[in-house]
Amino acid sequence: MLFWGTAFIQLLLLSTGGENSQFLILLYLFILAIGFFYSFQTSVAAFLISLIVLVINISFTNNLSIYLTQNASFFILQAVSLLVIIPLSYLLSRQYHLKELLFTALHAQVKAQEAIMEQLSELIIITDAKFVVLSVNDAVELTLQKSRSELLGHQLFDVLLLRDTNGKLADIATFFPQGDNTFLLDMQSLTLFSELMG
Q1: DSSP state of 17
Q2: Are residues 31 and 47 in contact, defined by beta-carbon separation less than 8 angstroms?
Q3: pLDDT of the chain, 198 residues: tens digit per residue
Q4: CB-based burial of residue 194 (10 Å sphere; 0-12 exposed, 13-18 middle, 19+ buried)?
């Protein structure tokens, strides 16, 4: 995604006049966004690649030394505006680094929930929408006498035998006969077997 974004910005700039493009502001915003969402180092790398592409474009379309002498004030203005982006990107990456903040907050939340879950004596099995076991607490391991590695990542009904009051083995269709995620069978009518299927 980052590569394609950089390639798109570079092609847009080159196709609309290179260093004279009215879309040069997009390059600045793109570099700032990279600093915000990724890291300062990544934004500096994108800046250097962009700078190299623009210099190569100038050298192919004009003689570089003649271009610099004829357009010295314009070149200096563009260079200063590009160089201002680097400290701004640094500030964004240090002050508002979204990825690290989200990771830290989510990690703390997961740790807190795991600590709470481990203290409960009730059996807690967390699954995704397809009933693949994502997490279990210690009470599940002790009751079923199976390790987490034997439970995690497996279909709930493959590792846990549930029967209704009639003795019929439960499966996903028992809970969702219409496939609409609405429980039609009362959970209290199921009894838990401490045996696991092979």
Answers
A1: T
A2: yes
A3: 777 887 888 888 778 877 777 887 888 888 888 877 777 888 888 888 888 887 788 777 776 677 667 777 777 777 777 778 778 788 777 776 666 777 788 888 888 888 887 888 888 888 887 888 888 888 888 888 888 889 899 988 888 877 777 778 877 777 776 665 544 434 434 444 333 333
A4: exposed
Rounded Cα distance between 86 and 105, Å, is 28
pTM over cut 0.70: no
DSSP state letter for 155 = B
Token couple for 132: 């693949």
The pair of three-digit structure tokens given for residue 40, joined into one six-digit string: 């300062």
DSSP 181: S
Tokens 């570099």 sit on residue: 31
Which of these, 6, 8, 48, 56, lies nearest to 40 by C-alpha position? 48
